[in-house]
Write a structure and sequence with these properties.
- The protein is α+β, with helices and mostly antiparallel strands.
- It has helices at about 25-60, 155-165, 165-185, and strands at about 5, 10-15, 60-65, 80-85, 95-100, 105-115, 125-130, 140-145, 145-155.
- The chain is elongated and about 85 Å long.
């Protein structure tokens, strides 16, 4: 390859793309479509995140991932459930709820077996819970004012969400998103 003199007087290699080469129009169109689809998907995911935040704020909604098999087969490991906060006294046997025991930060999601109304002047309702796959009820009642009632459940999605919460995935996704934005706004010839 011939050497080309730069403004500083030092030689450099000429570009490997032949002068006057043209990128096929079909390839340009395909790359443009890929870029637009990727940007649209990112925008839709962002919109879903904003919607989830609004739902969480307005309706005190949240998501629960089933990590154990205590509620199988209806709620398999890795299922994702949308829950909404309700007063514990409004629950009935058969409802599936998520609660925390007063002495623990672990969230338990089981089916309501019995509801005992609060004592006069009290604000805590006593819930007896049992996992569908468990042979016996939970050992102690849960004394709570509110609980997260399960509204809808989607299998498998929870496992995927738990995977994407990892630092490696977040770093990779950040780099991919940065590359996509750079590609979208790169000056065109």
């Amino acid at each position: 390859m011939p050497e080309v003199m730069t403004g500083q007087g030092s030689p450099s290699r000429a570009a490997s793309v032949p002068r006057g080469a043209v990128v096929p129009p079909v390839l340009v169109r395909v790359l443009k479509i890929v870029r637009e689809v990727a940007l649209t998907l990112v925008a839709v995911l962002g919109l879903l995140c904003i919607l989830a935040l609004i739902l969480g704020f307005v309706f005190k909604a949240s998501f629960v991932v089933f990590r154990t098999g205590s509620m199988e087969p209806q709620y398999p490991v890795g299922a994702l459930s949308l829950t909404v906060q309700v007063k514990a006294e409004d629950l009935v046997p058969g409802d599936v709820v998520s609660v925390k025991r007063a002495d623990s930060s672990v969230l338990i999601t089981h089916r309501v077996v019995a509801v005992t109304s609060p004592q006069p002047g009290g604000d805590r309702t006593s819930l007896i819970l049992k996992g569908d796959a468990n042979s016996s009820q939970d050992p102690l009642p849960y004394e709570v004012a509110t609980a997260q009632k399960v509204l809808v459940t989607v299998p498998v999605i929870g496992s995927w969400l738990m995977t994407v919460r990892g630092s490696g995935f977040i770093a990779g996704a950040t780099l991919a998103l940065a590359a996509l934005v750079l590609w979208a706004y790169w000056p065109r010839q």
